Amino acid sequence: MNLSDESDLPPDDSDNVLVFTRRFDANADITEMRNFVKAPDAKSKNRWCTHAKILVDDHLRQLTCRLCGKVIDPFDWINSVTDGETKVDWELQTLRREITDHRSGLEKIKREELNCRERVKTLQFKLSDLNAEIYKANKELAFLTERIGQVKALRGKNS
Ligand SMILES: [Zn+2]
User: Fold this and answer.
1) pTM for the whole thing?
2) Is residue 15 part of a domain?
3) Ligand 1 mean position, distance from CA 47 (Å)
4) Of 80, 87, 100, 101, whose CB has the highest number of CB atoms within 10 Å?
5) How far is the CA of 115 from the centre of ligand 1 (A)?
6) What is the CB-side half-sphere exposure of residue 83 using CA atoms within 13 A?
7) Domain annotation covers residue 143
8) Is 126 contained in some domain?
9) What pLDDT is stored for residue 9 in this prediction?
């Protein structure tokens, strides 16, 4: 450093910091010598997080999951949203097909109901015709039975 008066600077306590860290990690000095050190796992690291709540940082130009802290690749995120929309699209098409199928099924049932009503009406007419014939036949039968009775009575008198 090229400062005129080093006494104005806060005291360099990096040695103290190292001593302090060593109390917790005896190999902290080895880690210090490395060029690349893995960041510790996020506290809320959750392998099953779907990263549904996103923090958009326009300074860092970075998307971060607010639930698990993972940095989200914007393309991956938009791609997953697109996949979701594709799924919804497919589901809506399936639903529309089902509605069309149900409608044509309903039309068929309505036609069948109409046919059945027509058949019931026709059969009711036939039944009423048959009842009229039965009534007529019963009357004839009663008349003939009476006649036979009269003939038998006459024969009985004659013999
Ligand atoms: Zn997440």
Assistant:
1) 0.44
2) yes
3) 8
4) 80
5) 61
6) 6
7) no
8) no
9) 58
Helices (H), the chain: 14-22, 28-33, 74-158
- 45-66 residue pLDDT tens: 677 888 889 999 999 999 999 9
Paired tokens of 71 = 């940095």
What confidence tens digit (pLDDT) does each residue in 113-123 have?
999 999 999 99
Domain around 53:
11-72
The DSSP call for residue 4 is: S
Distance CA 105, CA 111 (A): 10
25 Cα: distance to centroid of ligand 1 (angstroms): 30
Number of domains in the chain: 1
Centre of ligand 1 from the C-alpha of residue 51, in Å:
3
How far does residue 125's CA lie from ligand 1's centre (Å)? 75
CA distance 138 to 132: 10
